[in-house]
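User: Show me a protein chain along with its predicted structure.
Assistant: Here is one chain, sequence first, then structure tokens.
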Amino acid sequence: MDKFILKPNTIRTSYFVKFVKIVIALSSPLQIIGVLILLLSVVFTPMFGFYYLVRFIRNSVIDRLPAFEMRINMNRGRAQYANDLLLEKFPYYKALNEQNRNRFLARLFKFIEAKYFIPSGGTILTKEMTILISASAIQLTFGLNEYLLHTFKRIFIYPKEFYSKFNKRYHKGETNLGGAIIFSWNNFTSGYEDPTNNYNLGLHEMAHALRFNKFRSDEYDQFFDMYYEKWLLVANDEFIKLSNNIPSYLREYAGANKEEFFAVCVEHFFETPHEFKKQLQEVYKHLSILLNQDPTKQFDPKY
């Protein structure tokens, strides 16, 4: 009986030899390439599946656990400073319940740790700058699974409007695919000093970053990317109206192009949500689905 027992190494060798013979027997390079692609898919598909499973568990489960939310990776003094600052200067944070404030802070500090904040044009960088700018990103993405905007590693902060070498004009803010978000601090702060004038530079530039994030990173929010075209289809009539200089609830700049249209809609969405909902009900409804939050209600993400 022993002579009929194949050892494991013999079995593996036999399969390998058979595979080599099959490849050699193939009649064309295309067939060989096809077999190799099939082999690679068999090997790597489970690896990618495991990677995305881990991301899903991290974003959808772990990130929502109270124990995780409370572990902010910062000393208590710094967390308390951020909490006090946001309660004073950030109405969105102030409106959250305690559990969501803890979750907001956890995301905030992870965002800060993932970025380089670069003072420019004579700016003296402060903790307040890093916290408030990061908070604008967390506000926008608070209903989404992916919120770190991985494409954008560098955040430049100028004291006031800055000169752009790209189009030779002065800008209040800029977001570019080189991986940079740029703010003029005076205009950033004025956006939160009057939370109902529909001008908010922080939300505006972060909206551009959210849209552009997928072009340079595979870590983008897939639901947002999938649903964006649906929202744009619903909102297209309003965009056409604005692009033809027909007055709208949205400010005129929204008609410049579809990227600016989205960014301006985000500003109105957070600053005057009740009026937005009244004036453009369907556009508002689908924007709340897109961002998975509704500022007219207590924050309650649906996924």
